[in-house]
Amino acid sequence: MITLYNKVCRECSEMVTKRYSTSFSSGIRAFDKKLRTPIYSIYGFVRFADEIVDTFHDKPKAELLEEFKKDTFKAIDRKISLNPILHAFQEVVHRFNIENDLIEAFLNSMKMDLEFSRYQDHLYKEYIYGSAEVVGLMCLKVFCDGNEDEFENLKEPAKSLGSAFQKINFLRDMKSDFAERGRVYFPGVDFENFTEDDKQHIEADIQADFDHAYTGIVNLPEGAKFGVYLAYVYYTKLFQKIKKSTVAKVKEERIRVGDSRKAYLLFSSALKRSLNLL
């Protein structure tokens, strides 16, 4: 009955994804069907680790994260786990040859959230790599499905896309990160004295990431291209809203793209794809 167990574990990761992120779930549905389950499994793993450090405020976070890390590598070594999220994730790790270094970097970035509330340049880069870029690389492993030459060619743009998404998240969540967790991710930025110059410098950095990322998106395998492009379109629209917002608004509101606008972006992106413009 291991087949049934495997199926149930994969479905758990899918449920976690859909309950935690409607936007990400929409992007996954735009992938080729064979890609959806492994991407759900990656997201389920990432989501649970992030949940430990971001929301379990009255629990022993450091202990829980260390246990989660040990259980992750036990699952990979044994090729089985009674934690359904870790079992589904280890399947993907083995099937798509996801290196332990990527997993270590991700879990290390989660640990950093328990140890640091301010990030200087070297820590910021390390955190961005571990929390966002390696997740993009895990997904790219799935998209390329064993084609290592393709993976190497698309690796750097994939990292840039993850970096852009994460930096936008930092801007979008600036208020809650500071008020609820005492965190400021951007090097040299003081939340209380966040300036227009600070904001423009960060936005220029994000734009450079987006420009580089797009060179990879257009060369992704067909089954993955539309889903990744859709996420790119959504985040660029969110980025535009943030750029048009004042510093005061960024500090006081969680800026978002409305559901009707998301539906329009989906329609326009699908039209572009049907006209072979992507």
Description:
This protein is mainly α and 278 residues long. The chain folds into two domains: 1-95, no CATH class; 111-278, Farnesyl Diphosphate Synthase (Orthogonal Bundle). 79% of the residues lie in helices and 0% in strands. The chain is built from 13 helices and no strands. The chain has helices spanning 2-20, 22-29, 33-55, 61-78, 84-95, 100-115, 121-144, 148-172, 174-181, 196-217, 222-244, 247-252, 259-274. Helix 3 (33-55) crosses helix 5 (84-95), helix 6 packs antiparallel against helix 7 (121-144) and helix 8 (148-172) packs antiparallel against helix 10 (196-217). The longest helix is centred in the middle third of the chain and has 25 residues, at 148-172. The radius of gyration is 19 Å and the shape is globular. Mean pLDDT is 89; it is low at 263-275.
